[in-house]
Amino acid sequence: MLLRIGFPDDKDSYNGSSRLRSPWGALWALPLLFLSCSTPTSSSGTEQAAILTLSPSASATPRPSLAPASLTFKGTHLFDQTYERMPQLKAGLHCSSCHLQGGTALTAAPLMGIANDYPKYSDRAGGQITLADRVNECFERNLNGPVLPVQSEEMLALVAYLESLKAVSPQPRGVAMLAKPPAEPDSERGKSLYSRNCRDCHGADGGGTYKAGAYTYPALWGDRSFTKGAEMAQPGYLASFISVKMPLGRGKTLTDQAAWDIATYITQQPRPEFPPK
Predict the structure, then answer these.
(1) What is the mean pLDDT of each run of 10 residues along the chain (277 residues)?
(2) What is the pLDDT, as a whole number, of residue 125?
(3) For labelling, which of 1, 14, 32, 212 has a CA lying 20 to 30 Å from the CA of 113?
(4) What is the DSSP letter of 115?
(5) Which helix (H) or strand (E) holds 25?
(6) Pairing assessment for the beta strands 172-173 and 53-54 based on DSSP bridges
(7) What are the beta bridge partners of residue 172?
(8) In a 10 Å sphere around its CB, with 0-12 CB exposed, 13-18 middle and 19+ buried, how is residue 31 labelled?
(9) Residue 30: CB partners within 8 Å, gap ≥ 6?
(10) What is the pTM assigned to this prediction?
């Protein structure tokens, strides 16, 4: 099993360029060891940016990865360059668009140790699901694409990569949920705040920044963005993500009210339906 090391990085690059991208960078760790988008947990209080949802199975017996190193390596690139390498997905996004630093950023839906959580019961599915099932949920809801056959090379590579992410304790999941702000979130205020804080990267039309067939910053609404079924399409979840990570490299500089206003504005914009009509 390859150990993926994630170092704190103020830039938290969307495309993974500001972190250790290749598992070969952790070869020294080989003698030591060999996806969520989870549903957010709401809570009360003025602000809870330091509180993370804990996986109920954090103490589960680890599942060793049997995947060849080359498969894990491919999974790394699929995770970081999903849009470019998987054209069947309609969204112009990467897995690392939400799971920053390759899923190792502690406050951005981290995925370390995620393989230990599965199989598990899913309220959404109404039964037990595997890690591959959860990846396919993300493909449908977040990346607006078809599911992958569970034995396809792409799925096996992504699962191998996720299995390579070493667990930490306590085991964080999701994002730190903000309480509702003092004033009702307002999309008009959010539009003005978006223009000042988000437009330069994500565009006035929310379509992101794409150059030469690859993206630099992801679309936040429109045909290339996540669907209405994504966690990020929920104002509270998106506000919480914005609060700790946006603007990129300057997280925790917006007030909670501003984060809620921006999230309310973004989630009211058009995006793909889910399920597709």
Answers:
(1) 38 48 36 36 34 35 59 96 95 96 94 96 96 97 96 96 91 90 97 98 96 90 97 97 95 97 98 90
(2) 93
(3) 14
(4) G
(5) none
(6) antiparallel
(7) 54
(8) exposed
(9) 2, 3
(10) 0.77
Any idea which residue has 């309609």 for tokens? Answer: 90
* Amino acid, single-letter form, for residue 92: G
Beta-strand relationship, 120-122 and 172-173: unpaired
Give the span between the Cα atoms of 181 and 262, in whole angstroms. Answer: 12
**Residues near 168 by beta carbon (within 8 Å), at least 6 away in sequence:** 106, 112, 113
Return the amino acid letter for 261.
D
Q: Is-cis flag, bond preceding 149, omega within 30? A: no
What pLDDT, on the 0 to 100 scale, is given for residue 15?
56
CB of 246 closer than 8 Å to CB of 178: no
Closest CA to 163 of 26, 66, 56, 38: 66
Give yes or no for a cis peptide into 56 (omega within 30° of 0): no
Distance CA 40, CA 226 (A): 17
